[in-house]
UniProtKB/TrEMBL annotation:
One Pfam family recorded for the sequence: MFS_1
Name of the protein described by the UniProt record: Major facilitator superfamily (MFS) profile domain-containing protein
Organism: Polycladomyces abyssicola
Localization (cell): Cell membrane
Keywords per UniProt: Membrane, Transmembrane, Transmembrane helix, Transport
Amino acid sequence: MPTAKTRIVDTYVIAIFLSTLDIEIVTPVLSTIAADFDLTPRWAVWMVAVYLAVFSIALPVMELWPVRQTRQRLWLLALFLYAVGSFVVSISSSWSLLLIGRMLQALGSGGMVPLFAVAIRRWIQTSRPYIRIGLTLLLAGVLVVLPLLSGWTASIFHWRWLFILPIPLVITLFWVAPRATTGYGRRSQPLDIIGVSFFGLMLFFAMAAMAMMNPDDGWRAVIAPQVLPLWIMALGMVVPLFMVEKQAGAPFFTPMIWQDRRLLLFHVFVFLTGFSWSSVVLIPGWTGFLLPEIGNAEGWSLALIAASASASVPLSRRLASRKGCYVNFTLGFVLLYIADWLLARILVPWTVWVALVLWGVGLGFTLSAPLHLLLLQWLPSRQVRVGLVAAGMSRAAGGALGLIALAYVLGPVDPDIWYRHIGSLYPHYPRAMELAAGVSAIGFLSTFLLPRKSEERN
């Protein structure tokens, strides 16, 4: 039987895995897509950022509402949304239509997560240990191979095939869903998720405000006529969010988050981890410029990061079991800082490979650190699962805003120049990596602000 801790982590782990798969598919071909739609970097990253933002909102909505719907209906709805979204992306003739397709994909992925978590947990319970190890290695292999396949598919055929190919698989899953979901029953008691909607609005207003800022205006970009109203709306969403959650009978965001300094620090910390990871979307393009003699360098860079992250997870878990998750976060942020700094400052081939390995290990350490153990110390056990979903929302929000911020540093470079000669971004690209390194440094310092295990919950 699974332990309470295992049940808590299932959805969180599957959510991270699915979002990682999407990043590995899209990132190696992002510059190609930007060239097709004549986009600058600050708008091209929206293809990933909008997916992360909608996915962070879709996960709690699809999991917790409506309670009267069975898992089977949720599964069918999720598959339908993902298939339609993939089709829309594959035929899109405008950037706005492509983003709508990406939103539909994110909604579908959010609905798949709960059932995937239950199905994999049940399968593992009835499997022998060597099968579990084989499944783990298979998933790690998928993460390593997928960016390579993405780059090769786009170069041989077209990037649109990356969104056409999954549709037959989704149709197959749709056909077998009635049998596969038999016995899953109805979901747990509902929560009031109106607050999640206000969180989503706050996130999208902040993303739009940052994307509209002109880096040539300096600090005045924040108060530009087309930008300031968006920032006001983003900050203003905090008020209705607080009011709705305060009056809700079963609020999604636990009331303790507004009263407990530890939980506020925890969500800020998780936001920083998501922000620090966002540079992974820019690294492949920069690697392609630094290593032009290597074919599909974008895919190889992501594959090396994924392999390094997967290899570091067993060590990270062992370290966490002995020393606690704080050591994992500390080492992870240090490695991410060093990797980003190397990619920004020392632009020679061998340091690029070293930086990619360090970045992957840093990702593995921060990704596999057991966040749920912190929440188990501070929250009642019945609130931990929802608290972990909220943490996932904060992390995805950090990733989405981080992407927009890094693209802002790159500046409004001509899209054709960006695609055909990415070196034209120099020195803007190193500045973006320096920003990512700075956020990792802040994350490192913030680990010392988190309460230690010895502190008891009031």
